Structure formats: C-alpha cells, structure tokens
Amino acid sequence: MPSSPVLFLMSVAPDGTASFAPADPTAPHLRVDDLGATRGDGVFESINVVDGVPQALRHHLTRFARSAAMVDLPTPDAAVWADAVRRAAAAHEPRAELLAKLVLTRGVEGSGVPTGWVHVFPATDYSRERGQGIDVLVLERAYPSDVVTRAPWLLQGAKTLSYALNMASLRYARAHGAHDVVFVSSDGDVLEGPNSTVLARFADRWVTTPPELGILEGTTQGRAFGWATARGDRAEVDRLTRDDLLTADALWLLSSGRLAAPIRSLDGTPRPWDAGLQAELLHHLLTVHE
Ligand code: PLP
User: Most buried pick, 36, 99, 170, 172, via CB within 10 A?
Assistant: First the structure.
C-alpha cells in the first residue's frame, strides 16, 4: 500500500535557534536560489528507521555536525534534530523500514540563514542485494590517500550534498554490468563505496579502512563491528590494498538503508560469500539499533 512521506521543515529564529514543524511533503518549499540546489552547498544524513526506531541516531547526528563544521555551516543542534527525526518517524504510517533524510543547506543566497528539513519515506526494497549479493567494480577515486591534509577543500570525508560524482560512478558501474563500486586512492589504498563502507573478513579478523584516508566513518560499520566483537572476533580499522580485496575471505558494502550487501564478484571475478554469516550480520543490523 502506498504511504505518504512525512516532512518536517526547519525554521530559524533571529537568535539562531532552530525548530521544526510538519509541512506538506507534496508542496514546493525550496527556493530556486537556495545554495543547496544551485551549488550542492550543504550536508546531509540518511538514517534508517526500523520498526519505528531511528538507528544509530546519535552517531548520525555527530557525523552531521562534523560535516557541517567541515563546510563552515552552523552546528546543527543534536537535540532539536533528534526530536524532529523521532517526531517525523512517528508521524509516518508504520513500516518495517523507513528512511529519514536530514538536509542542511547554506540557505537562500545572501540570506545567511540555513535551510533544513527532515524527510521520512519508505525505504527501498534491498532484499535482492541483501540476499543474493552484489557485483562490484574497483574504480579510481584518483585522489591520493593523504588528500585530507593535502587538499582539505576537496571535503573528502564530509557528507555533502555534492554527490553527483558518487552517483556518476554508480551509473558507470551499472553501464558496465555491475551494481556498485569500491574506490581506491591513486596510491592503491582501498577507500569506500560511493555511498557505503567496505568491510573485509580475514578468518576471524574484520577490517574496515581508516577515515584518515578521506572517507566517511560509517555508522553501519560501527554497528557491524559491535556484532563482530560480540561473537568473539577481532574488529580493526586498518589500511587495505587492492590485493587484500582479492585475498579476503569475504567482502561487504555497508550503509544505512541497504545495511549489508555481500560482494559476490569483483571486477567480474566471483568472490566467496557466506549466506549464513550474511544472515547473522543482517539480523544484528536490523534488530540492534545502536
Ligand atoms: N561512505 C559514503 C561515501 C557514504 O555516502 C555512506 C553512506 O551514505 C557511507 C560510507 C556509509 O555510512 P553509513 O553506514 O553511516 O550509512
């Protein structure tokens, strides 16, 4: 049954205090001169809401504030945004999985007042990716692994609205018979997916790549690490090379929304993946919210 999305719009008082109120999600709200639209100048978060509970809300809001700081936007008030997310999720018709999208832009050009909203809508059905795995291409991001210190203006590691490149890489993958992408740096470090974190398993050692390489610290990866350590395995943040991708016992792409997608082929070469482990990991991600 189709269900209507829920929208909460931010307003900012003269003293800078933000508050949220429900708004009609089918009515236009964004001005054509909003810098979020004209320059992709803003930040966002996507939070999955499972059985009405926003997952890893605190971590998402911490990352939202970090991204805002990286583009010199005012710090979003975590309590105000958390309340808006919970109210918007509660206002939506119940669904097993919803997505809450939080957006903060630099606002209408010249106004100095940010635009913000929380939009809650039914999640995409990811049962095929979760259940059958994904085919992945390894693509160059063409930045060096020290991009964060060498060129901080490239905003690597911030979740900005400028995702056109990320989406272009996904279209490239699809045009070449794959579903998704793993980026590598120009000097051979494994980075992340265009909207996901890489997780590799080597026996009982679970590895993800370091945020210092200019990648986003994944909230889903954090929760997957909680699961790995609870089962007595080791969870480590460490650098991975392209060759490590070929020797790993299993690989996943992790993200809010899709949660865990096992990689079943890399550049056309089949990769082993374990349906039992995938089911365990997915169960954890769907039931343990922090
Ligand atoms: N890396 C990038 C570039 C992303 O856009 C995302 C999520 O959208 C992630 C990693 C995964 O982060 P999370 O698990 O918090 O969704």
Answer: 36
Q: SS3 helix, strand, coil % of the chain, rounded to 5?
A: 30, 30, 35
Residue 188 is part of which domain span?
127-285
Number of structural domains the chain divides into: 2
Query: Which residue puts its alpha carbon closest to atom 4 of ligand 1?
Result: 195
8 Å CB contact between 115 and 104: yes
Q: Is 195 in the pocket of ligand 1 (CB under 6 A)?
A: yes
Query: Can you say whether the dihedral through the CA atoms of 121, 125, 131, 136 is positive or negative?
Result: negative
Q: What is the CATH number of the domain that holds 17?
A: 3.30.470.10
**Ligand 1 atom nearest to CA at 159:** 5
Pocket test for ligand 1, best of 161, 196, 258, 285 (most atoms within 8 A of CB): 196
Ligand 1 touching residue 256 (CB < 6 A): yes
Alpha carbon of 145 to ligand 1 centroid (Å):
18
Over residues 110-167, the pLDDT tens digits come to: 999 999 999 999 999 999 999 999 999 999 999 999 999 999 999 999 999 999 999 9
For residue 159, report the distance from its CA to the centre of ligand 1, in Å.
8
Predicted confidence at residue 1, as pLDDT, reads 46
pTM of the model: 0.97
Residues of the chain where predicted confidence (pLDDT) is lower than 70: 1-2
Give the C-alpha separation, 103 to 116, whole Å.
Answer: 5
CATH code where residue 203 lies: 3.20.10.10
Q: How far apart are CA 21 and CA 117, in angstroms?
A: 9
On whether both 174 and 271 belong to a single domain, the answer is yes
